[in-house]
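Customer ticket, subject: "Can you confirm the structure for Pyruvate dehydrogenase complex dehydrogenase (E1) component?"

Message body: Hello, I'm evaluating your service for our small team and ran a test protein. I'd like someone to confirm that this is what the system normally returns, since I don't have a reference to compare against.
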Amino acid sequence: MTVSPDVSSSTNLAGWLNKVGIWSPAERHDWFADDAETTMHWRERPTGQHMELGIAETNLVGLIGELGATWSRWGQPLFPIGVLYDPFVERALEPWSYGIYAGGQSILVGTPSGVTLAAEGGAHQSIKTPSIGLEQPGCVSYEPAFAIEVEWTLLDAISRLGRPDGSSSYLRLSTRPVSQALAAVPADPAARERRRRQVIAGAYTLRTAAHPAVMLVGMGAMIPETLAAADRLAEQGIEAEVVCVTSPGLLFEAVQARSGLGEAPSWILDQVFPARRAVPMVTVLDGHPHTLAFLATIHHVRSMSLGVSRFGQAGALEDVYRYHGIDTDAVVRAALDLLG
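Agent reply: Thanks for trying us out. I re-ran your input and got the following:
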């Protein structure tokens, strides 16, 4: 069951709505059914699997909290997925958190997110939501960079629903067009499965270096800039390893477990951040920079954390990235500063 607050078309749910329809107590006439140019068909009927709430984010999280509790109340699990603009996660935070506290297991999808939504002005740019995902109890947060990662993390999130040891999930997504070839997903089945396991565990090495001088750690929409910075550094004879983070929260839990402050699995730290490859680190995300700053504590390396810490602006994407210091030039400068 999907739920949205008046953003079904702008959050790319049209294909899903065409397939499953919109829930209504009784079937209602579709006045645009004869329009051959309509790409989204608004068919309301009792068998529909999508619920539209209008502009009411608090109602949305209240509803998915209730739908997500049917497994414990009636023995019949539902898989509720709520979709809203990421900036409005903060508007719905208190009732969403309470729903999780009360046992409602659901999936919340915030999209589009960050200053990558520059075309819509500063009011529609989310800065603090990566921190919310990291810190919310009873919830696993993901920020995938590529479509295949969205598939893997969404399936993992669904697998956590409707069970006594389950949890809610939060996916922070972007509508920025990104070349899927950059994902470099391995063709070998075993290597592909290893990538999938790392993605749902929190991070993976996107580009290796024989003798890395610096590690560039990016997340979500900032992966193209991270890879471009690695290319620029390579032109100067500086090898950079590139890591793609998919869940800061899971990585933080792994770091805490290593210190005896939790029971989360920590094998992902050995695979992606091995001690033998500990080098200065630059982190970058389309959100507050402190979200990834803790990664440098794994091996106590020198680091610089790039991100967004002031209100956004309307403008071309490259200009907004430059304004916030998260463009390719900023990543290259940070790496060079660390290397002296």
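A couple of notes from the result: The mean pLDDT is 92. DSSP finds 13 helices and 13 strands in the chain. Feel free to reply with more questions.
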